[in-house]
Please model this.
Amino acid sequence: MNTDIDAQLFEAAEAVRKRAYAPYSHFTVGAAILADDGKIYSGCNVENAAYPIGNCAEASAIAAMIAGGAKRIERVYVTGSGSMPTTPCGGCRQRLREFAAPDTAIICHGVEGEPLMTTLGELLPHSFGPDHLDQ
Ligand SMILES: [Zn+2]
Model:
């Protein structure tokens, strides 16, 4: 593990988490992606008074990555304001799958305790992805 890039990813996820818009749940989440261009893209959750249309932090970070011109996810950090490690929701696991391989590291943090170090394949086993669509 490259500790320098991990420190940068954690710092980016925490910085963007502090800018999250979460007036309803008060549960702030930050996500930072290391992309194939070597850059870090981050995003936070953005809630809405019409609850279902809010955005997850991971979705925001993926949108920033695509807008920035990168195409593949190499590593992901997620930080949340809860006491347990904040793991990507089911929808975001599938969103990540579009741009990440099953062995892509996903590191999940809460505000205390040890982070959960996992992979996309562990979070979303036997997943359906772009490779299933023979084109
Ligand atoms: Zn999500």
About this structure: The domain at 3-125 is CATH 3.40.140.10 (Cytidine Deaminase; domain 2). The two ends are 35 Å apart (CA to CA).
